[in-house]
Design brief:
heterodimer; A: 285 residues; alpha/beta; Rossmann fold; 2 domains; five-stranded mixed sheet; 10 strands; globular; B: 353 residues; two-stranded antiparallel sheet
Chain lengths: 285, 353
């Protein structure tokens, strides 16, 4: 995660920490209050629960509670998601919980460009930004153009255009959605794929304008269905584009179980390409 | 009167102001002018006043939900504090925080934190920022004995010691975490030993003696300009009233409370100063009258205050400052010198997120 940074920037700026999630996240908040622009790396979203108090009760509230006096320009990175057989304490997709919290900006890069280009604007943001990096994407390889720079961190992206159905995905599920769209094309169904990119605030406009054209929507979310980000996206489509829909919004979510270790069970618990294809076909697209 | 004498009179005056302020808060609470939780520090004034004597204007303070004394002793105007308690927009936090969440950028007062132990990591981070930017400052962090049972206490002590950061940890040990007595909550009731175990220099101080607290705080902060690390003060004190206005206070003996009241820091100092010929006859009464007048002025200010417009409900959820459109060179590291001044308020027209 920090390969080469220590050598380049030295131990004052690249700090190894004790396993004290609450203290080092809180120290990041304090340092941000003190005029720094810290990046705190928490390893996994499951570990971030040990720092939940600092993130929710301090980072997200201080600006508001202080009547606008103290903003917290902090970036927190963490791994999320399953796919690496790490079982039930390293594999969950809890970003939906954080998406509930006013005062936070949540980013989920799904491409190499976003993984690199989101960091600078996140650092420029005057308020806390949480970046959720899906663990299964860390080994993705590709070439970035020499002039690759910052990317927009406020909007969703249409990753593939299509006219028959909108598939909404983010982070680790973008690849699943794109593969499903490829298969659907072979069956004569033209799927549009939206990458949410920014999980809070949600870019409703991009989603709704797509649904207004395709009249169908499937939301793919590795998180559990109940009280999830997929539920929020589904609700917003229902609120904002109900009369555009030709079928109820469908969701393909993680199974509501603690993530199992065995590969076949982990696959069964997470959205697969075939699940997305099936969901689209069931809506009569 | 010599300088030390004048200084001691000032400390007495500060304690009298805080005492009168909080006594008036009780009346205002009964009259429903103040609502929510109200945690009073009556009896504990020497801790707040003593510690603040060691701080300069550049230093920072992190406080708790029992913070009126800290806020007033730090120099936040009594009007702004009272208006905050009454939920008025003229309050220190625009009336959004109330008694538990007073913030003030001008005095680097980073708020009352109402999660026990929640402020300690912030103090470590504020001190880290000072260390990285080469500023000889200290961050004073107040918390109670209850916080010592929280993981954040231990994590923060360790981190501050490990990184040698200038945090003055001020534990106001009033012997009760809400209704839970120290011995019921702590396997080791000598709290300074916990700090010592992290190699943080620790002092046990009579928290009812403002001169002792001030002296200890000065000693503890002396090493800051030369890169001294964290220090820990266990301020042994007592709250004369219940945990909050909701607390029936059934867990303490009347005798115990009376015993501590005999050690009330205000008459104790007044008597000592009178005996030493520093405080003239009638001076304490004049001080009390002036404090009462200041409190009444603050109450009048608060009651004449206005309510934040409902239209501003979502203001300051985020700063609303635009993401810079011009592409800064991503290769260049953010320069701490050009980092925004934390004391400058973000765009007041901030949009909500």
């Amino acid at each position: 995660m920090s390969l080469g940074l220590l050598e380049e920037f030295g131990p004052e700026r690249i700090r190894d920490t004790p396993l004290s999630e609450s203290a080092f996240v809180g120290a990041g908040i304090g340092a941000a209050l003190g005029g720094m622009r810290p990046i705190v790396e928490i390893m996994t979203v499951n570990f971030s629960l040990l720092a939940l108090d600092q993130i929710v009760n301090n980072a997200a509230t201080l600006l508001y509670m202080s009547g606008g006096q103290f903003n917290v320009p902090l970036v927190i990175r963490m791994t999320t998601g399953a796919g690496r057989q790490l079982a039930a304490q390293h594999s969950h997709s809890l970003e939906g919980w954080y998406a509930h919290i006013p005062g936070l900006r949540l980013l989920a890069p799904a491409t190499l460009e976003d993984a690199r280009g989101m960091l600078w604007p996140a650092l420029c943001d005057p308020d806390p930004v949480l970046i959720f990096e899906h663990g299964a994407l860390y080994n993705a390889e590709g070439e970035l153009p020499d002039d690759a720079g910052e990317v927009d961190i406020t909007s969703a992206a249409v990753r593939r255009t299509g006219g028959d159905v909108t598939i909404v995905a983010y982070g680790g599920t973008l690849r699943t959605a794109l593969s499903a769209a490829d298969q659907l094309e072979g069956r004569g169904v033209s799927a549009e794929v939206i990458d949410l990119r920014c999980l809070r605030p949600l870019d409703d406009a991009t989603i709704l304008s797509s649904v207004a054209r395709t009249h169908r929507a499937v939301v793919v979310d590795e998180g559990w269905r109940s009280g999830s980000l997929s539920a929020e996206v589904s609700a917003r489509i229902t609120e904002g584009a109900f009369y555009d829909l030709d079928a109820p919004v469908a969701r393909v979510c993680g199974a509501e179980v603690p993530m199992p270790y065995a590969k076949h069970l982990e696959d069964e618990a997470t959205p697969q390409v075939a699940d997305v294809v099936a969901a689209v076909e069931q809506m009569g697209a | 009167m010599n300088e030390a004498g004048r200084g001691a009179v000032h400390l007495l005056d500060e304690m009298v102001r805080i005492r009168r302020f909080e006594e008036r808060c009780v009346e205002l609470y009964s009259a429903s002018a103040i609502r929510g939780f109200l945690h009073l520090a009556i009896g504990e004034e020497a801790c707040a006043v003593g510690v603040m004597q060691a701080l300069t204007a550049d230093d920072a303070v992190v406080s708790t939900y029992r913070e009126h004394g800290h806020a007033l002793a730090r120099g936040i105007g009594m009007r702004a504090v009272m208006a905050e308690l009454e939920g008025k927009v003229e309050g220190a936090s625009l009336g959004r925080g109330g008694s538990m969440h007073i913030f003030d950028a001008a005095t680097r007062f980073y708020g009352g934190n109402a999660i026990v132990g929640g402020g300690l990591p912030l103090a470590v981070g504020l001190a880290l920022a000072d260390h990285l930017q080469g500023r000889a400052r200290v961050t004073a962090c107040f918390f109670g004995d209850g916080a010592v049972a929280e993981g954040e206490f231990h994590e923060s002590m360790n981190l501050a010691a490990l990184w040698h950061l200038p945090v003055l940890f001020c534990c106001e040990n009033n012997l009760y975490a809400m209704g839970t007595a120290l011995a019921t909550a702590q396997s080791e009731t000598d709290l300074s030993r916990k700090a010592s175990s992290y190699r943080v220099p620790a002092w046990q101080v009579d928290g009812m003696d403002v001169l002792a607290v001030a002296a200890a705080a000065r000693s503890a902060t002396e090493s800051v300009p030369s890169g001294g690390g964290p220090h820990f003060l266990e301020l042994r004190t007592y709250r004369f009233r219940a945990h909050s206005m909701y607390d029936p206070d059934r867990y303490r003996d009347k005798e115990e409370i009376e015993h501590w009241k005999e050690r009330d820091p205000i008459p104790a100092l007044a008597e000592a100063l009178t005996a030493a010929g520093i405080l003239a006859e009638g001076e304490l009464e004049a001080m009390e009258a002036a404090a009462a007048a200041e409190v009444e002025d603050a109450v009048a200010f608060a009651e004449a205050g206005t309510l934040e417009p409902v239209a501003d409900l979502e203001r300051f959820v985020t700063s609303g400052a635009p993401i810079p459109a011009g592409a800064p060179d991503p290769e260049s590291a953010p320069d701490p010198e050009s980092a925004p001044d934390p004391e400058s308020a973000p765009d007041p027209e901030g949009a909500s997120r």
